[in-house]
Write a structure and sequence with these properties.
By secondary structure, the protein is of the alpha/beta class. The protein is built from eight helices and 13 strands. It binds manganese (II) ion.
Amino acid sequence: MQFRARWVTLLWMRILLSNDDGVRAAGLAALAEVAGHFGEVFVVAPTEERSGFSHALTLWNPLRLRELKSNWWACDGTPADCVYLAVNQLKLEPDVVISGINPGPNLGHDVIYSGTVAAAMEGSHWGIPSIALSHLNHDPKTIEALAHQHLREVLERLIPLARTRPQTLNVNFPDVTKGPFAGMKVTKLGSRYYSSEIHERRDPRGRRYYWIGGAAVTMADIDGSDCNAVKDGHISVTPLGEDLTAHHALQELKSDLDAGLDSK
Ligand code: MN
C-alpha cells in the first residue's frame, strides 16, 4: 500500500531537465530515460557544452531556442538561460527541475563554478523544487551504468524530498565502477581545491594564450561534508540556498565596524 501511495504522489509530474554538458550529452539522455518513469519529461539544454559557466545569464546577445523533437529544445545560451526560458518563455510549468547527470563531481567549491548546479538553482529561484546530479567518474560512458543501476530508486526518494523544500538538492554519486554505494547521506559543502597551474602556449601567429583550470585536486577532510561522504561510498545530498551571506561573520563584522567608527 505504501508503495502504491508513493507512486500516486510521483505520477503525472511535469519534469524539466537541463544540464551544462549540452543537449546531446550521454548524462542527459540517461536521465531523460529514467525521469520518464515519473512523469512527462521536457528538456531545455545548451546547444553546446557550457561546463564551468556558473549562473551566467546572456544579457547582451540574442538567444535562440530550437525544438529538436517533441518536448526537447536546444538553447544557444547558458544553463541558467535554458531554465529561465523554459519557465518564463516556454511556460513549461515544471513540478521539478533536474539538472545533469554531470560527468565529474560538483562537490564543495565546485558549486560556485558549476553550470549543472546553476541550472538547478535557477529552478529554485523561480520557486520550483530542483535537483542537481553529478557522478564522480569523468567518463560519460559510465553514466549509463549509474542510471540503470541506481537512478530510478534514488529519484523515487529524492523527488518527494525536493518537492517539500525551497532549496536545491545537490547530489553527488560515488564512482559506480568502484563497487556498491553505501546509501544516501545529507551533507554540507566541503572544500575542494584545484591546483593553480596555467599552461602558456603560442598560437600559430606567435601570440601567447593560456589554458587555465588545474587538474590536481585536494579534498579537505571535513566531518559531515559532501567530499567525505562520497569518499566513504555514500551518495551525498546537500541542500543549497541562494543566500551567500557568511552568517557566522555577521556579528564580528558589525563589532569591528562599530569599533572603527567609535575610534574616529
Ligand atoms: Mn559539465
